[in-house]
Specification:
Blueprint lengths: L11 H4 L1 H32 L21 H5 L1 E5 L2 E5 L6 H5 L25 H20 L1 H7 L2
């Protein structure tokens, strides 16, 4: 008795299309989340800026600085070694505004509302990062169907 077996390997898994589509999908989801992060951080900072008159400030006692909005405008995403990063470079005071700079521990006088206190930071990147973490899986599932169609040939 002689048995002959022949196997034909073809399709997206074997010709590299599936691997390529997975890579495209990953990049698309990262870009989507990065764009959302930039928009969400900019929108959040706008609600936090004390010098823009929020939290009871007035232009007479809390004037708008000449560079108001510079940090907000500097928020952008970059791609470093296939990883999307949302950053505020080249703003040098971004870490202080976020609340992670060693200077945030320094007590400073507040002219409108004594006593002296430290600036705790707005924590925009941390808060928005946590929100994006919670939204990432649903967004990925929403964006997946076209890539699955491409992988199924």
């Amino acid at each position: 008795m002689n048995i002959e077996i022949s196997t034909d390997f073809h399709g997206p898994v074997f010709d590299g299309i599936a691997k390529h589509e997975v890579s495209l999908f990953r990049q698309h989801v990262e870009d989507t989340l990065g764009d959302m992060g930039v928009s969400m951080i900019r929108a959040y900072l706008e609600t936090q800026y004390m010098y823009l008159g929020h939290h009871g400030g007035t232009p007479a006692f809390n004037p708008v600085p000449h560079n108001a909005g510079f940090l907000q405008a500097a928020i952008h995403k970059i791609d470093v070694n296939d990883v999307v990063i949302v950053t505020d470079d080249p703003v040098t005071y971004g870490a202080w505004i976020e609340g992670i700079d060693p200077m945030n521990l320094v007590v400073w006088p507040h002219h409108r509302n004594p006593p002296a206190r430290r600036f705790p930071g707005y924590h925009a990147f941390r808060k928005i990062g946590q929100s994006l973490d919670a939204m990432a899986t649903p967004i990925a599932y929403r964006e997946l169907p076209p890539y699955l169609t491409a992988m199924n040939g």
